[in-house]
Structure formats: structure tokens, C-alpha cells
Write a structure and sequence with these properties.
The complex is a heterodimer of chains A (271) and B (251). With 271 residues, chain A is α/β, with parallel strands linked by helices. Chain A contains ten helices and ten strands. A six-stranded mixed beta sheet of chain A has the order 6-7-8-3-9-10, with helices on both faces. The chains are: A alpha/beta (271), B alpha/beta (251). Chains A and B meet through helix 6, helix 9 and helix 10 of A and helix 7, helix 10 and helix 11 of B.
Amino acid sequence: MRLELRDVRHVYGRGTPFEVEALRDVSLAVEPGEVLGIVGGTGSGKSTLVQHMNLLLVPTSGTVVVDGVDAATLKKSELRRGVGLVFQFPEAALFAPTVEEDVAFAPRRMGLAEEEVRERVRGSLEMLGAGHLAGRSPFALSGGEKRRVAIAGVLAMAPEVLILDEPTAGLDPATRQDLLSLVRGLRDAGISVVLVSHDLDEVAEAADRVCVMERGEVRAIGTPAEVFYADLANAPATVRVGAALKVAYSNVGTPVRYGETLAALRAMLED
Amino acid sequence: MTFEVHAGEYVGVVGPNGGGKSTLARLLNGLLVADAGLLRVAGRDPAMEPFEVRRRVGMLFQNPENGLVAPFVEDDVAFGLENLGVPREEMRERVAEAIRDVGLSGYERREPHTLSGGEKQRVALAGLLAGRPEILVLDEPTSMLDVAGRREVLERLEALRGEKTVLHVTHHLEELFDADRILVVNDGKLVADVTPERLFSDLELLKENRLALPTALRLALDLGLSSEGSRTPEDLASQIRQRITNRARAR
């Protein structure tokens, strides 16, 4: 699925004294099978932006286009099945007595056969490394486990695009790492992922492209190397090392991911 | 769990999700009560004298939204003092001072909801400082902030070093380079009570407790370089430049 926003503008509280223009003519595409990282400060419009991707928010002007079709003409339930949105702190919405039932909620509501529901629950829990939690109460899990179960609940709808809004906020580093490997795994399984995060190191690791939001506008969009090397004040640690060396030694290149950076630095030191 | 924190110490608290860090923080001001054992905060038992203890212990939480209550920044900062019954004139002074201490002078009449995450968190910190607590307990104060917000809040915390006793719970080890000690809490137990240098060089201990080194430090170790000169990415880069220059000279 190719998801496109064309000149999307969003105004909150229109016609009131609290009117705020949260998005100004934003145009961008989520390409099939990519991880698109979205970064930017608080209040830059990241969450507003992604909530347009399944029309949870309706643009004040502009259009959302899904595989060439205006999303406003699609059935909402259809659209939200194809574009799954996982909110910040999604574990707040866990409600069922067992993990299995919680994850089964959406596919069951979709009217799937019980066998298919079970298959999807099993599949999505497994994909998130949470298969062993199926029979547990979601309320007795750790923070990282809850987060994974909540994501599995959206994944069980078999979306083609999965939007994760700050999925690692508040998680410990190892849990965060696990979740990022999952993001790469989803992508390898052909699902596009939109990853909203204020952690630049993690976006550097997981994203194929990065979009920088600022005051409701797209300030930059491109490969992680293009975007991060152009704005070092908002770059991950790996890029800051690379950039500081590049001044004297251009052969360091423009490494972004940890592995690439380590290899580039090693090559310089051994040269 | 057994440990002591001395007046003026800056102590980090780290460990995995569900390990007990937040429970520990909440025990310290009587939000939770211990089932057994002895707990004294500034000489008092928080379970018996929660209000006396809360006068002396300021707590800053993860989400800056949760703590802000008043229509204007200055009212918000004054809120705690009103409850403490501080006289009006003194209240004014303390509020102005606290707002200045967090670098928000000029923000007195701003509405909290118009502020950035970092600014909101600093308003919350000012509210604590106005109460002049001896002890600050910070429970992941930067984890919901963006890069700029984190930097702002950390600079303010840095300025409090030595002045207050600080217990700083975090997942970001780079926030604890200058801590006097770091407590590693896992599975409800105190697993280690070490200096930052010790923790940062004990890869086994880090791994067991699901901790990750700051990126620059991790690169340095993987490259066999000194961790001493690798706090920031820029430090690491200059260490590498130095190496290359030295080697060129040697040739």
C-alpha cells in the first residue's frame, strides 16, 4: 500500500480564540514496505500528522490518498484495517481478562471466522515475541510486555501500514532494542511502518527514510544520512561522531546506523 | 533492599522496567508504604509522617502534563506553597526565585498549556524548588521530552548538584556521568551500588540489568579506545583524530 498526504492542513479549534494551525500544507508519501521515521520537537505536529493517515483526524484542507484513491471515499472501517495506528502508551487501552482475548477483539469485530481469529492472534503475538503470554492477564505484565501486546492487537487486523506513535517511550534500553528489531521484522514481512519518535538514535537504527517536522511543516525528508548530516543539532550520536571526523577525513563517509559507524571508524583507525 | 543516601549526594537509580525503581521512589514520600523494614527520609518515617516528609522531598514525574494545575505559570509554581501556608510576601519571593532558577524568567504570566514539554517540566521543577525541599526524587524526568527539552531539564538538574540530595531514576545512562553513585535495581532487589565508572565498564552487569551504554561510549569500547575521553560523540571524534595524528607522526 502506498499512502500519500497531499497539501494536508489541519486547524484545531477553528473559529475559536484557541485556533491553532497544527499542520500547514504537508505533502509526503509512505512507500510500500519502508520504515518512515518521523521526528521533531514536542508540538511540531507529529501526532497530528499520523492521525491523518487513517483519517482519525480529517484534514481541514488537502487529501489523503491510498493507492491512488482518495481515502475520504473509502469506508472508514476498511481504511483503518489497512492502516493500523498504535497510540502513545497503548497499554492504557488493554481491557480483556487475557492477552489472547485482548488481541482477538479487533479481528473478531471484523467478523472473521473463529479459526482465522485464532490464527491471527497466534501469528501477531508470535511476531512480537509474546506468544508465551497468551493466557496471562494483560494487567500482570511488565511495561514492555504490555506494550507488545497492545501492538499485537493492532497487528491482528493485518494492516499494510502500521503507525507507531512513540512506541519505546519509557521502556528500558533492552526492551527498546527488542521492539526496534520487531519494527525491522515487520518491514521485512512487507508491512510499511511509520515510526514516530523523539529518540534520534532509535530512528537512525530503524528508519529507511526520515521526515523532520517543525511547527506543523515538513522541514526535511530523505534518507537518514541526508537528513541527519544536514542538521547536526538534531542528529543521533553516530552521525555526530561521523560529522566531527568528516571535517578532516572525508573517507569516513556518512555512516548512520551503529554497525556502519563502527565499521567506518574501525577502517579509519586501521588505515 | 538496604542503602543509605547522604545529604548532598547525587544518586542515579537504573534497571529494567518492572524492576522496582518507581516503587522505590514512591516509598520515599509515603505514596506507598513498605510491608516490612525500616525507612527514614530526613530522619522521618514517610508512612507515619507523610506530610512532614513531603515538605522535605520534592518528586518530579515522567509526564510533565500530569503535574500542572493552574492557569498561569506563576500560580502553578505557587500552588504547593499555598498548601504549606507560606505568607504572601515570602511566597512571591520564592516563586520568582524558583522561576529564575529553572531559566523561565519572563514566563510568569504564560499559560502552561502553551509551553513545550521541556518548559512544562521546568515549571514542575520550579514548583518543587519553591517549596525548598532538601531532597529531590526524579522519576524519569526526561523520558517524554524531545532532544531540546531533555537538554534544558538536564542543565537545570546539573545546577542543583551539591545543593540538594538527588535521587534520579532514568533509563539514560548518559544522564548519570557525574552521579556520585548509581543504584542498580532489578527484580525488587538492589543488585549493585557502584560509581558510574564501575558501572560503565562492567558489561556483564549492564547486560544482566537490560542497560545500554551511551552510544559514544559503546563505540569507544568496541574500538578499543579509552572510555574516559568518550562521553560525547565529539569527545570520541577528537580521540580518534588524536590517534590518527599520532600514528602518522610515528610513521
